[in-house]
Design brief:
Length: about 120
Amino acid sequence: MSNLDDPRVFLAAERSLLAWNRTCLAMMGFGFVIERFGLFLRLMDPGHAQAATRGPSFWVGLALMLFSAALALASTLSFRALVATLGPKERPPRFAQLALVASYGIAAAGVALTVYLGGAAR
């Protein structure tokens, strides 16, 4: 348990969580771009347009999206563990926990996008 009795500790932890959220969103977007790059290459080559193969870009993109979802969940759990160690003076009396909602939403969106794109390629 922390004995600093400074509410800025919580705010710093929340800013770190939001920074992880931005990182996870960027990685998820990059994974989507990588996943769709194989489709772009197939469309640019008319001779292979009908081939529905899953190339390396598909698997790398899906792995990156799934990894970013797991990272969002891990950062959320880390934040919750840290907040649990804070004293009552360090926690805001009533905080909306919107950062937690955003983190769980990012993790859920990453898993949903991975499942959707993995199933859509069949």
